[in-house]
Amino acid sequence: MLHLYGSVNSRAMRNIWMLNELGISYDHKDWLPRAPETKTPEFRALNANSRVPTIDDDGFVLSESMAINIYLAKKHKSPLYPADAKKEALVLQWSLWETDRLDRQVVDYQRHSSQLPAAERKAEVAEKAWGECCPAFDVLEDTLKKSKFLLGAEFTMADLNVASALYRALTIDLAKWPHVQTWLKTCWDRPAAKKTRALREK
Known about the structure:
The mean pLDDT is 96. Helix 1 (12-22) links the parallel strand 1 and strand 2 (26-29). The protein is globular, with a radius of gyration of 17 Å. A 4-stranded mixed sheet has the order 2-1-3-4, covered by helices on one side. 54% of the residues lie in helices and 8% in strands. The protein folds into 2 domains: 2-75, Glutaredoxin; 85-197, Glutathione S-transferase Yfyf (Class Pi), Chain A, domain 2 (Up-down Bundle). It is an alpha+beta fold.
């Protein structure tokens, strides 16, 4: 049995989405980052950094959400992870690009523009984050003008990883980037994505 440690309200969301795409049953510990459970000796034996997500797949322990998705997709020979070396490299390119250009920035923008109580919001944080999001959205828009998905006509792990990071962007006005808006909706309309989103919004 595969055990997944990490809340759907964390980067573990992309792992839950992947598991739903693969149709794998798993035991889920819905622990937030820095939750007390992550500080126990038992969990630190799995992840010395006390971080989620982490998986224990019949004794094979792995952390970091991107690494987990690569492992799961390759182990289960998912078509979401291309066998072709060049397409595999592009999946990795987009996945790593997202962690640098959008992951933190979208979170900061949403928190400080709408999510946090008004008294806790910092306009300068929201402005800086949005200033970093816009060029990244421009890059996505230019790519998605040429193809339905990031690698072409088919949905891959590149789309899953980037779209999962843009969950918060589902409530952001993306009218300036119509191809991004359509792509994001298409990704999140997948049955596995809807199942994942339902866990977060219950």
